[in-house]
Amino acid sequence: MAPACPAHARPTPRRARPPAGAGEAGPTIDYQFLGMVAVALAVVTRGSLLPVLAVTGVIAVVTLAYEAGAGWHRRRHARPARRPAPGPTTPPDADLNRWMAAVERLLRSAD
Fold it and tell me: Exposed e or buried b for every residue in 75-102, given b needs 16+ CB within 10 A?
């Protein structure tokens, strides 16, 4: 029930901002991929720590730069709207009438 006096009406709540974690996330690091690279490098370099850390760090920075660039590109260039999918097509009335007549003939012949 609406209040009788507009002065006592509640204002329409404003749309709240989405939480920081909601929506489009920022660039992230794929730790599983970096772990596999580090293990492979450790095997190849026979446990030498400095090359493993250096190459893994370079790969992480390149990955982050790529994701940041891709996000910037997506924000700048909106995708065109998709066309709606065509609905199921129905046969024209003439085709439907022709098939119904054939079905009726078959049903009458069975009697």
Answer: eeeeeeeeeeeeeeeeeeeeeeeeeeee
Radius of gyration of the chain (CA): 32
Q: How far apart are CA 75 and CA 23, in angstroms?
A: 13
Q: How confident is the model at residue 14 (pLDDT cuts 50, 70, 90)?
A: low
What global pTM score does this model have? 0.46
Per-residue pLDDT tens digits for 38-69: 899 899 988 888 988 898 999 999 999 998 89
Two structure tokens written together for 38? 């580090």
User: Comparing C-alpha atoms, which of 61, 74, 78, 69 is closest to residue 24?
Assistant: 74
